[in-house]
Amino acid sequence: MAKVLIVEDDPLMSRMYEKIFSLEKFEVEVAHDGQEGFEKAKLTKPTIILLDVMMPKVNGFQVLDKLKMDPETKGVPVIMLTNLASEKDAETAMMKGAVKYIVKSKYEPNEVTKMVSEIIAGATREEVPAAADVTPKAA
Amino acid sequence: MHSKLFAQLTQLGINPDQLPQEYQQLVQAVDQTYFEYDQEKKIQEQNIERSEDEFFSITSHQLHTPLTAIRGNSSIILTFYKDKLLDPELVTMLTDINKSGVRMVEIVNDFLNVFQLEQGKMNFKAEGFDIRNIVNQVIDEIKPTNNQPEIQIIFNCPDQPIGVQADPYKTKEVVKHLITNALKFTEKGQITVNLTQENGMVKFSVQDTGKGIEPVQQSVLFQKFQPHDGDLLTRDTSKGTGLGLYISRLMVEGMGGKIWLEKSEPNVGSVFVVGLPLT
Question: Could you report the predicted ipTM of this complex, rounded to two decimals?
Fold first, then answer.
């Protein structure tokens, strides 16, 4: 079962995405700020991360930088999930290594889960060596 | 010494270095005030500029988040809990809530776009790209949300790449608007999309078999709040804000292109054309 980590500070959004991903049979982890998001990414080894951009203390781009610099998390696909429809932010996200920039208000929740499933399927087919980087090492 | 103070003293014929000690201190104090004033003014100007820029981000975020929750949660209930909605009226009411959320998102986006375009705060890139890809992407995105599956979208896609020099994001917005607009005003028939090259321009056209536009309304079509079906009290607001073609015109002009209504006949249909510079 694919595990998704939702890093989202707004309870309206985190509850909604937690619900839809559970209904679509994903295993779901939720973090409520950037710092918790980074820690949970290392601890829970998600298949994919949904990362909000605007968050207090540590914003989504800062978390993305940390995730991509850490050998344990750099291979996990990250989708920036935001309500800032900014081209500049979308480009920054892709440049920093995100696989997609989704504007939340444009899509129904089940369209988001569909896109996530497609990315996971693509990542599994095409990026096997990179995916191996995130496989927990045997003790 | 601050240039303004120096100029004022020179105008009065005063050499600051030759002033008695007690006046020297006074000149230094005035000098300091001038510099502090300059610094404060600069900070204020930066703050005004920043608050204008942040206005878009904050407004967008603040309005979109609750709207996303409204459309999203209603959609989840309609998809996964329909069996619990025993009264069919509940399904209708929830569908209305969902559609209202979607429409509100569109209205907010239109208003923000107009504000940015009119204030000159929208940046336009000039990149070379194959417009065929943009058209295909838009048609793929529209298909799943198309409520009129009987109306076909036919894209006569050329075999060779068609390179335009424009902003790919804005081009996509305009292409999407023209095709969805054609769908909105067409009850039967088809939408035909063509790409041609003429006189150093790429011509992107959308032809529909819809209700057409009355001649009297054609001249004001690309102005603000101009849905082409009636005056303020009789206009059909369910079709949108009336800003779509205005936004499209400002975007196309911002990319050095042109947009026009090629022809329209009541109950036969309309052809809208966008001309963009070739690469």
Answer: 0.83
